[in-house]
Design goal:
Helices cover 59% and strands 0% of the residues. It is built from 8 helices and no strands. The relative contact order is 0.10. Residues 64-76 have low confidence and may be disordered.
Length: 175
């Protein structure tokens, strides 16, 4: 194997094209590129053979957070606005749906963002713990759900501000 082979000459996969296509959609939504240019760049991204070819598609656009690379002015480890909203939704949707809503968010959005996954996992674990306490106490533990709504609201506010929230005294069954 030739070690002098540059990484830019390696073939790209569909998984490497997806972030580029997402960035193009963001740039189009932000008004950085017009419709014709968007179509042309999407075509170029879909037909790109190497990493260099794919890199030229978004070279003049602001880079997105990708594999450790950060937007200018972004703080490492700081969740995006969308991540904060999804994490807050994971806590809030737990009130009417118990553990089902946060579990769905964890499975769908948790792949994209570790912050959303962590917060949704906390909500799932909290709701499962409450459900188990209610079952074990033959329904008496159901009174804890009033307190659970308060905890869920507090957790949602924490998530909106980008901070992590850990529920006290719960079983962490989902890892």
């Amino acid at each position: 194997m030739d070690s002098s082979y540059a990484a830019g000459h390696l073939r790209v996969s569909d998984a490497e094209r997806e972030p580029v296509l997402e960035r193009l959609q963001e740039a189009y939504a932000e008004g950085r590129i017009d419709h014709d240019e968007f179509d042309m760049r999407v075509h170029l991204a879909m037909t790109a053979k190497t990493r260099d070819d794919l890199g030229t598609v978004t070279r003049d656009l602001v880079p997105v957070q990708q594999r450790g690379a950060l937007l200018p002015g972004a703080v490492p480890g700081q969740p995006t606005g969308e991540d904060r909203m999804l994490a807050a939704a994971a806590h809030a949707v737990a009130v009417p749906t118990l553990f089902v809503g946060p579990l769905v968010l964890m499975l769908l959005s948790g792949k994209r963002s570790e912050y959303v996954r962590t917060q949704a996992k906390e909500a799932v674990n909290f709701q499962v713990t409450l459900l188990l306490v209610t079952i074990v106490t033959f329904g008496v533990g159901g009174l804890l759900y009033a307190v659970a709504w308060i905890f869920a609201a507090i957790a949602a506010v924490y998530a909106l501000t980008g901070q992590s929230f850990r529920y006290p005294w719960i079983l962490r069954l989902v890892r």
